[in-house]
Amino acid sequence: MARRNQHSREELQALAIQAVRDLVAEHGLEKLSVRKVAERIGYTAGMLYHVFANLDDLILQANADTLAQLLEAMIDCPSPEAREQLQHMAQVYVSMAQDHTPLWKMVFMHQMQNAAEVPEWYQKKTAALFREVEVRMAKLAERHDTAQIHLAARTLWGSVHGIALLAADDKLVVAGDVNAQAMIESLLQHYLNSWAEA
Questions:
Q1: Is 129 found in the same domain as 156?
Q2: Residue 58 in domain
Q3: 3-state DSSP percent of the chain in helix, strand and coil, to 5
Q4: Cα 136 to chain centroid, rounded
Q5: By three-state DSSP, how is residue 179 classified?
Q6: Rounded distance, CA 59 to CA 66, Å?
Q7: What is the pTM of this model?
């Protein structure tokens, strides 16, 4: 590893974020600490506090990277059809929950310490996902107003998230060992059919 003074602030930030991702993938979020991140990259915890406000900030920065990768994969669909794009988005979401469970859970289950507010910049990152869902749902039923689209996108994605969570925790056996992707297909088929006809 390079000497400490050979890393710029941006490089140190990138090293720390990658260390967070690696540590969480290896040991889970509950065992993460600034000290462990610092040890992983060969710095002191005090040095990291010059780059990140606290552990929450470090986690949110790492989550922002995960969200960016997730969103990029979700919108990378070859079909121009909104319904097929939504199907692809949901399948990618569930696949990430199953294949990269610790990182996926860190995004959606991290709780801010001391009930601190989630910063606005991070709220915008999470809102971007819903915005992509809203755009496609609007194409399926343009007569619906903004409030209806807003509600429907969150209702649909809340259901997708529930399936993803069960899949991530390997709890689908309680539903009769049903395939997660089959559940997603069923959910979207019935919900979107109803949405388009309403």
A1: yes
A2: no
A3: 80, 0, 20
A4: 19
A5: coil
A6: 11
A7: 0.89
